[in-house]
């Protein structure tokens, strides 16, 4: 379920988010398969979301 949501979000991101589009294009230019590059975008999105959550907790003073 989460993987499906990330997959659809990554497809949208590589179309409309310039930084993720450039990341995807760079991987494709290095010879990575489309699905491999897309999964890398999915992982990068998770890392970004985790960092935002972590930083929000620090700003709010949550343990």
From TrEMBL:
<protein>
    <submittedName>
        <fullName>Transposase</fullName>
    </submittedName>
</protein>
<dbReference type="InterPro" id="IPR047650">
    <property type="entry name" value="Transpos_IS110"/>
</dbReference>
């Amino acid at each position: 379920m989460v993987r499906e949501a990330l997959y659809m979000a990554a497809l949208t991101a590589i179309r409309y988010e310039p930084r993720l589009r450039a990341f995807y294009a760079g991987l494709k230019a290095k010879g990575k398969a489309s699905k491999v590059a897309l999964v890398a975008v999915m992982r990068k999105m998770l890392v970004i979301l985790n960092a935002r959550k972590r930083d929000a907790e620090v700003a709010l003073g949550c343990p």
